[in-house]
Automatic annotation (TrEMBL):
SUPFAM superfamilies named among the record's database cross-references: Helical backbone' metal receptor
Protein's organism: Microbacterium awajiense
Family from the record: Belongs to the bacterial solute-binding protein 8 family.
Protein name per Swiss-Prot or TrEMBL: Iron-siderophore ABC transporter substrate-binding protein
PROSITE patterns: FE_B12_PBP, PROKAR_LIPOPROTEIN
């Protein structure tokens, strides 16, 4: 349905309501209009973000999500979006992530329209065709120009609070809950997730206090993830602490990662190393490489291997659905690495 047709429908409904109101007046009705049409509980909601603020008048029924993790939060709160971005990394041939597919099946819902995300640019025409009453993008790279185009179409837009691609995963859930009028449900969801993580940490007291560093050697560049990265925060929730050597190697080039020259890898000391790779072949090649031999954790065997796009995507960063979906496999990898220290 086009937006013009939707607005025409609204106008027709308003005219009908006005006619009924006049008829009621002619019949000297004593009904209180406020009682006849009460405001929807929890609405309107106004949410401020990096570009301005959005006022959501009623509970949204046609939600479009953009960026990472927002579709997960919407689905976890029991709402099925009308359109979500394709996620080629970790997703199936249509760009649908496995935990999203599982949740859709659980809800008995069809797959939403999959938006083209290949260029990273918001597909304005595709979104307009979905006729949304809310565009949610709290963890995304939405630009001012895209924001202006969407709001110019009359679509309420909720962007990130401060910087692109920097909203903590817990905040994504809270913001989504507020926008949907489900703040209490969002708080309960976070409590459930935190309880699962806390229970897992309690089941693995051997994790407590061990230092950890997380890395990815890809295309000739060695990435070291910093404490601000969500995957590091999640690992710390399980009892680990970030190794002091990470701060010593931080060049300040980014808020959530730094690159390290191969000649300095012997300075990256920690009890456990978490290493990422797209395939097991790539992981094996890395662990057998000359640069990896400089890492003390490789010598001890204390390397937690996280292999495959879906497993990597599940914790990079975690989402309302992926955190628990990938939790067991991630903990198993950590357990094996810690066992090598004994």
């Amino acid at each position: 349905m086009t937006r013009s047709r939707t607005r025409l429908g609204i106008a027709t409904a308003a005219l009908t309501a006005a006619t009924l109101a006049l008829t009621a007046c002619a019949g000297e009705s004593t009904a209180d209009p406020a009682e006849a049409a009460p405001a929807e509980a929890g609405f309107p909601v106004t949410i401020s973000d990096a570009f301005g603020e959005a006022t959501i008048e009623t509970a949204p029924e046609r939600v479009v999500t953009w960026g990472w993790s927002t579709a997960d939060a919407v689905l976890a709160l029991g709402v099925v979006p009308v359109a979500i971005p394709a996620q080629p990394y970790g997703g199936d041939e249509d760009g649908v992530l496995p935990w999203i597919d599982e949740k859709l099946q659980e809800l008995g819902a069809e797959t939403p329209t999959i938006l083209d995300s290949a260029t990273g640019e918001v597909p304005i025409q595709e979104i307009a065709a979905a006729d949304p009453d809310l565009f949610l993008a709290p963890y995304s790279g939405l630009t001012q120009e895209e924001y202006d185009q969407l709001t110019g179409l009359g679509i309420p837009v909720v962007a990130y609070p401060d910087q692109p691609w920097a909203t903590p995963w817990r905040d994504v859930i809270s913001i989504t809950g507020q926008a949907l009028g489900k703040s209490d449900e969002a708080a309960a969801l976070l409590d459930d997730i935190d309880a699962q993580v806390s229970d897992t940490a309690a089941e693995h007291p051997e994790f407590a206090g061990l230092t950890v560093a997380q890395v990815w050697d890809t295309a000739g560049t060695f990435y070291l993830y910093l404490p601000a990265d969500p995957r590091v925060e999640f690992t710390e929730d399980l009892g680990f602490v970030s190794a002091p050597s990470i701060a010593d190697l931080d060049s300040g080039e980014s808020t959530f990662y730094t690159t390290v020259g191969y000649e300095n890898l012997d300075r990256l000391t920690s009890d456990v190393l978490v290493a990422y790779a797209d395939t097991q072949e790539q992981m094996d090649e890395f662990l057998a490489s000359d640069q990896a031999r400089l890492l003390p954790q490789v010598a001890t065997g204390a390397v937690a291997q996280v292999v495959g796009p879906a497993q990597i995507a599940a914790v990079s960063p975690p989402t309302a659905l992926s955190l628990t979906w990938g939790l067991d496999a991630y903990v198993d990898a950590l357990t094996q690495a810690v066992a090598a220290l004994r």
